[in-house]
Write a structure and sequence with these properties.
This protein is 46% helix and 10% strand. It has 429 residues and is mainly alpha-helical. The protein has a domain at 62-76 and 131-332: Glycosyltransferase (Alpha/alpha barrel). It has a three-stranded antiparallel beta sheet. Strands 6-9-10 form a three-stranded antiparallel beta sheet. Strands 13-14-15 form a three-stranded antiparallel beta sheet. A hairpin with a 2-residue loop joins strand 14 (394-396) and strand 15 (399-403). It is globular and about 60 Å long.
């Protein structure tokens, strides 16, 4: 037991110890992963906000910082200190969103540190400026979940409201990327997945189809076709959160109506443009489309993903399409699904062929209908930590001793969330 952890988190550890009384290795792995984010990545700032670095990279990703602390939301309802820490993160996220909604990663201070000297509109706050829809989704999701799990609304301040309007403006602008977008991104001397084609504009998409454009995937790899369907799905969920907050907390019916309208527009476009026929699996969702009829059938380990539809809360018109898509994703028809002697699951273009991700395994478990499958996946995760007692990014399905990233805070948190889910402890939505 980590005695330095808050009592509220120790209570959750005790529940895990009770559930896995016959599996001390699972308990030890949970404790290490559960304490990792607080021990190594969280810093309270002098302005009352909270900065959360991604782990072995000294920058804060809007996406990762939410996923890293999400399991702590369960404890926030009874622990004011944890609740304040999370509210501080929400306020910092919206400061960054308003500073530059096209950036994905930020520095702890305005120091000019960056991953690379990219050709885009950088500032000294920015670590990287790869535009990803999910970078705007996650802060809204987190603010909403903080409210639902604690009842607090003080983080819905003027900066938050400004951020909602900023996000709406970007998503509407990027529905007409070719004509209206101010964004471009180029990185010199790199692999093609790290930069955008056509002088930084990215692959051509058809404007005005209802979908909103994304330059990069949540893996930070460039989109092949600019309409990234899992991220558009996540956007519809988040727009629903915006509508609820606007209606119930802000009492702003104009904002509620605007978010509801955009949600319907994107949702209808997904259902009409992103479903394609597959010979083996029937109607499935494409991963990316361009609006002209081209599409990509695949899924990636990073979230949002097609596998994560139910986890994120996407409301599909036809559940059979969701089931078909899951079957496709968890098969060799998905070019990033791999099976080996030690594990099987979803990997990513971001890592080597034959490497699968602990994040994707966690999502598979969190979206599974049976506790048996959840436990089987937990055991796979436990048995593929390469003796490090932490989760990695990707690992070789035939030899887990070959992996990327010694430890990965996002993956650690996802493992913890699956353990808690198995113990019937879940974040309220």
């Amino acid at each position: 037991m980590k005695e330095n952890l808050p009592v509220s988190l120790q209570k959750l550890i005790h529940k895990v110890e009770e559930t896995f009384a016959e599996d001390p290795a699972m308990v030890e792995l949970f404790i290490n992963c559960f304490s990792n984010t607080l021990d190594t990545t969280v810093k309270k700032m002098e302005d009352g906000t909270t900065h959360v670095i991604t782990g072995d990279i000294p920058a804060m990703w809007l996406r990762d910082s939410v996923a890293q602390v999400r399991p702590y939301l369960v404890a926030a309802a009874e622990d004011q200190e944890i609740s304040d820490l999370l509210a501080g993160l929400s306020r910092r996220q919206f400061f960054f969103v308003n500073h530059d909604p096209y950036a994905n990663a930020f520095n702890q201070e305005e120091n000019g540190n960056c991953w690379d000297h990219d050709e885009t509109e950088m500032s000294d706050w920015l670590w990287e400026r790869k535009y990803e829809i999910d970078s705007l989704c996650y802060p809204v999701q987190f603010a909403y979940l903080l409210w639902k799990n604690t009842g607090r609304t003080d983080h819905f301040d003027d900066n938050f409201v400004k951020g909602l309007h900023t996000i709406l403006n970007v998503w509407k602008t990027e529905q007409y990327h070719e004509e209206k977008s101010p964004y471009s991104f180029q990185r010199k001397g790199c692999y093609f997945t790290d930069t955008l084609s056509r002088e930084g504009k990215g692959a051509l998409v058809k404007s005005g189809v209802g979908l909103t454009w994304s330059g990069f995937r949540p893996s930070d790899d460039a989109c092949i076709y600019g309409y990234l369907i899992p991220s558009n799905m996540f956007a519809t969920v988040v727009l629903g959160y915006m509508e609820t907050i606007a209606h119930e907390v802000l009492k702003d019916e104009a904002l509620a109506a605007e978010t509801a309208s955009l949600k319907k527009e994107i949702h209808d476009a997904i259902e009409s443009m992103a479903i394609v026929d597959n010979y083996y699996y029937g109607k499935v969702y494409a991963y990316e489309v361009d609006g002209y009829g081209q599409y990509m059938l695949m899924d990636d380990a990073n979230v949002p993903s097609l596998l994560a539809m139910d986890y994120l809360g996407y409301e599909a018109d036809d559940r059979q399409v969701v089931e078909n898509t899951r079957n496709f994703v968890l098969s060799c028809a998905n070019p990033y699904y791999y099976e080996g002697s030690c594990a099987k699951g979803v990997g990513s273009q971001h890592t080597k062929p034959g490497y699968i991700w602990h994040i994707a395994l966690a999502i598979q478990g969190l979206t599974s209908k049976t506790k048996e499958e959840k436990l089987a996946i937990l055991n796979t995760m436990k048995n593929t930590d390469a003796g490090k007692h932490m989760m990695h990014e990707g690992f070789d399905v035939n030899d887990p001793a070959n992996y990327t990233r010694e430890w990965f805070s996002w993956a650690n948190a996802m493992f913890c969330e699956l353990v808690l889910d198995y113990c019937d402890i879940r974040v309220a939505r």
